Amino acid sequence: MVTVIDADGLLLGRMASIVAQRALAGEEIALVNVEKAIVSGNRAHVLAAYYTKRDRGSREGGPFFPRRPDHIVKRTIRGMLPYKRERGIAAFKRIKTYVGVPVQFAGMETETLEAAHIDRLSSPRYVTVGAISSNLGAKY
């Protein structure tokens, strides 16, 4: 059974750590609406940090940082897994990320993570993952 989590209004880092722990425990997880997940902080600072990540390295040798919001979220989750070891590889395969809500999850009940909700923020400064990816040049 797949657990469907709606990422709308969830803090990216907290959501990623919770999802990584649950995937390591053997749960299959589908994240929907990942473009509406948020990164807290000053807009200019956050966009500059992601642009630096994207610009680092070379075209031939990497490291390669994604532009699309679903790939950015999946890459963030990957950083919280032991992705070069067998159990981390298996956990990473159990995680799927989607922009919007795909047809197969349209009628299903979605779960939200209270520990990662936007209400935990003390300041109103944040940027959505969709805005970050658009700034990086994604056409999703």
Kindly list the characteristics that best describe this protein:
single chain, two-stranded antiparallel ribbon, 140 residues, 5 strands, alpha/beta, 5 helices, 37% helix, globular, 14% strand
Derived from helix and strand composition plus strand pairing, the structural class reads alpha/beta
What are the secondary-structure elements, in order, as H or E? EHEEHHHEEH
Q: Strands across the major sheet, in which order?
A: 1-2-4
**What is the C-alpha radius of gyration, as a whole number of Å?**
15 Å
Gap between N and C termini, in Å?
A: 28 Å
The biggest beta sheet is recorded as: 3 strands, parallel
Overall body shape? globular
Q: Give the beta-strand count.
A: 5
Helix content: 25-40%
Stretches where pLDDT is under 50 for at least 5 consecutive residues are: none
Quaternary structure classification: single chain
Helix count, DSSP H or I runs of 4 or more residues: 5
Determine the strand fraction and express it as a percent band: 5-15%
Instruction: Report the average pLDDT across residues.
Output: 95
Commentary on this structure:
This protein has 140 residues and is an alpha/beta fold. 37% of the residues lie in helices and 14% in strands. The strands form 2 sheets. The protein has a 3-stranded parallel beta sheet. Strands 3-5 form a two-stranded antiparallel ribbon. The longest helix has 13 residues. The protein is globular. The mean pLDDT is 95.
